[in-house]
Amino acid sequence: MGETKNEHPSSPYAAMFEGFRKDLDEHQDRRERVIKASRDITAASKKIIFSLQRLRNIGQPLPPFVTKNNAQYWEIIKERYKTISVDLQGLNTHRYASQITHGNQEFMEALTFQHYLEAQKLISYDESKAQMAALSGEADPVQLSIEDYILGIFDMTGELMKFAITAMATSGKLPEGRPKKERKPKQESSEDPSADKMDIDDGPSPQSGEEKPRNVLSDMREIRLQLEMLEAPRKSKLSDDVEKKAKVMRESVEKVEKALYSLTVRGSERPKGWVPGAEERPAEVESY
Amino acid sequence: MAPQNGMVDPAMFQSLQAQVDEDGAIRDELRDLVQALEKHNRNTAFVLSRAHSTPVTELRRVLRAAEEHIYASVSVITTLAPKASEMPYYKFNNMWTRQMQDAAYGMLFWSWLGGYEQDGKVPECGRLLTIEELGKIMHIPVNLKDRDEFHLTIEEYLFATIALVEELTRLARNSVTLGDFERPVLVNQFVKDLFAGFQILNLKNDGLRRKVDGLKYRVKDVEDVVYDLSLRNLVPKKGESEAEK
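YS: structure for the whole thing
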């Protein structure tokens, strides 16, 4: 402050601009803190998602190696949210929305994905808000906007796609819920062609999904249905974002459908461990 | 359609939709007001643009004509303010920030030309309204920090100030065309002072920075005009200009 006192003694507006500088600097500092936190939260969330992608089952508690590995990243997320929660209060609650949105969306992606793997359910908005509040400190919680929640779910369908394809590639079946686990199709048995044929037949029939455990594809379709029904206000930022993400989501669902198709058509002819459609989409191999 | 124990709870999506719709409805309501404000801003700018072709002695009529539109925009702002204050300010502020800048700019230019009468005093020419004075004209708070209400922000004020400099640069040249060699000198000093003020700010790489970066060319433009005048001994001496008034 002091060093600039006599910088521009001639300007009658110097005092006024010095006042502005102070306020603008504070604003920029807050903005930068939020940007940094958002970046860290994004990175940590991505790492959480990576280790969740090592799982092959749904509707089960996370195995200790995943919980242990991810604890450090949840800790980072918590710490960053705590750091910036003070910058996102009162008048400033929505001021840095476009700076924090990436972090929030990626956080939502990790949160929904983990919740799905554990409970095979889509985490609700209220529950997500509560989770974020718990992380950022109950007194001055960081608000999760509906927009960030919705966009995070859109992104999560991409993770479900990767999860489903990887599981199909490695275990030869589409992951499904717990109840009827003993009915798992045995791709490797070649001595009983009729049994294989049965498996193939009920794999892709979604209509008869009522009494059977839900699988990843039917869950993806259900999310897709709800998200497609959602009507964003015209010409809003949300509607722009949704339009882009909806396209990717549709592709994700279709990728799983295609993979399931090739598993169904060719599955019986292939040895276990053969990757369906690997030659067409090498990018979906799990990354480290 | 999906069972309660399924993947998603349809009721939750219905409630999300309801909240999204509510935001949309607020947006629609605000948009009407913002559009009305925009119309008045355009009218103000239209009338004030006559300043470029009107000699100072006849400027009063122009300023009075502009006043009507300015106060029309103020009345929209005073309707907008309480409505917008019901919502978090920064959730919707991008809807009106441009129009608030334009409204502020109209008032700055009008006042600079001597349109703003304060406490019954004869308005003086070449004065920059402060952000507080603008807030008084608009009947809204300015530069709020501790409460979440509608207000005029520093950024909006600064953008309006830059627009004023750009307009005055034009005015400096056009004054010469009208045979007024005194006003360019006034503009020159004013623009220089403002530019010095802007240099005090620590600007980051954003819209304001880009605008301020362009300011130095405007300063130079006005300097060139004054240079041309002084080269030809056309700049009125201090004493002369006083006597003329």
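YS: worth flagging: Residues 56 and 167 of chain A are 6 Å apart (CA to CA).
IM: good catch. Also Residues 1-8, 180-210 of chain A have pLDDT under 50 and may be disordered.
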